[in-house]
Amino acid sequence: MRLEPVASGFELPVHVAFRGTQDPRWFVVEQAGRIQVVLGSQVRPFLDLRGRVETGGEKGLLSLAFHPQVAQNGLFYVNYTRREGGRLKTFVSEFRTSADPDVADPASERVLFTVDQPFRNHNGGLVLFGPDGFLYVGMGDGGSADDPLNNAQNPASLLGKVLRVDPRTGTPQVWATGFRNPWRFSFDRGTGRMFLGDVGQDRREEVDVVEPRGNYGWAVMEGTLCNKPEVGCDPLRFRPPAAEYPTHEDGTCSVTGGYVYRALALRGSWGGTCSETTVAARSGPSGSPQACRSAGRETLRQGGPGWSGPPSSWCAPLSASRPSQSSRTGSSWWWTSAAGSTISWAGRSLWLSPGTRTAAAVPAPW
Ligand SMILES: [Ca+2]
Q: Is 73 strand, coil or helix?
């Protein structure tokens, strides 16, 4: 993988959006409240909401989504924090472009809905259209630590949820539950499924494959660990993460976002902030030897890029393949690796990057 700069001169850019697949423009969202449009080497202001946005820390203008029919209706949506009547709120608003499609009309704001924010942090922040034409919104648990108001597990609260909105009515509905701070998510273009990064507190960063009405556990669980209470929770009440790694351990940082990418080199990659850590959760066939399969057995391997030890593999009946590094928590198996490794199990595999001491969980195959 190689990175190269394509545009510069932005102040705290937090999101990049595109207006359809044929439009070469990039729209760069700056946290303080400005959106800039990039075309080739030209950078121009698209919309300036700095007079409305309260920014700083996890607050600000956090994302932008163009309506699927933007070419016809000129509509787009933003998510930002604002103080109104002394109270901090999340605003999800619709705007329209002006006669010049590269300049938005700041007076066109139509507020779809607002959500009171009891604390300054955990504002979620993404608006993104799904393949079904609905607008999806990631809402954090309201902030502080350990979700003191238990918003994420409260079905009556819009905090700690993924919301689904019909932009025509603007009415948010709870689509999935139990998130701490779902900063970014994306839709797998192959299957339409949502992949979401839920930022952890101090133990686990996680990637969730989000299903409608799913409950992803916070603040009872942090990843696959009991959190509130720290012992004796029931993991089977919740959907486990598709992948997770320890927070702030050996240079790993919060899960930032990512995309499902179907290729041989790198599949399902999710990036973490401020380190080189990448956790890639692979799904689908892992290339297990046919011989193993035909014998009614599964291959479990540890090796791959960065793995300092000798590659290990097991070809064994599912119930007997329990390598010494593993342990079982709830319905998941765990492996801990001192260096990078590839772990595959029952046709699913997790790739753990070099230089990190981390752990991975995959649903047990039985
Ligand atoms: Ca969770």
A: helix
- Between the CA of 331 and the centroid of ligand 1 the distance, in Å, is 14
> Based on the domain organization, do 237 and 302 belong to the same domain?
no
The residues pairing with 27 across neighbouring beta strands, listed in sequence order, are 17, 37
pLDDT for res 339: 33
Buried b (16+ CB within 10 A) or exposed e, 236-266: eebbbbbbbbbbebeebbbbebbebeeeeee
Ligand 1 center from residue 240 Cα (angstroms): 6
What is the separation of C-alpha 257 from the centre of its chain, rounded to a whole number of angstroms? 5
Task: Report how far ligand 1's centroid is from the alpha carbon of 150 (Å).
Answer: 14
- Look at residue 335 in the predicted model and tell me its pLDDT: 38
DSSP state of 236: G
Residues 202 and 145 in one domain: yes
Helices (H) and strands (E) in the chain, counts: 2, 28
Residue 287: is its pLDDT beyond 70?
no
Q: Is the pLDDT of residue 176 over 90?
A: yes
The answer to whether residue 352 scores a pLDDT higher than 50 is: no
223 CA to centre of ligand 1 in angstroms:
5
Query: Three-class SS of residue 207?
Result: strand
Neighbours of 103 (CB within 10 A): 14
What is the residue range of 351's domain? 290-363
Closest CA to 355 of 338, 331, 334, 332: 338
pLDDT score for 338: 31
Q: Which amino acid is it at 364?
A: A
Residue 104 C-alpha to ligand 1 middle, in angstroms?
37
Three-state SS for 43?
strand
Our CA dihedral for 83, 85, 91, 96, rounded to 10 degrees, sits at -100
CA of 105 from ligand 1 middle (Å) equals 39
Cβ-contact 257, 183 below 8 angstroms: yes
45-97, pLDDT tens digit by residue? 999 999 999 999 999 999 999 999 999 999 999 999 999 999 999 999 999 99
Residue 34 lies in a domain: yes
Q: Which of 209, 242, 275 is the last residue in one of the domains?
A: 242
Report whether pLDDT(311) > 50: no
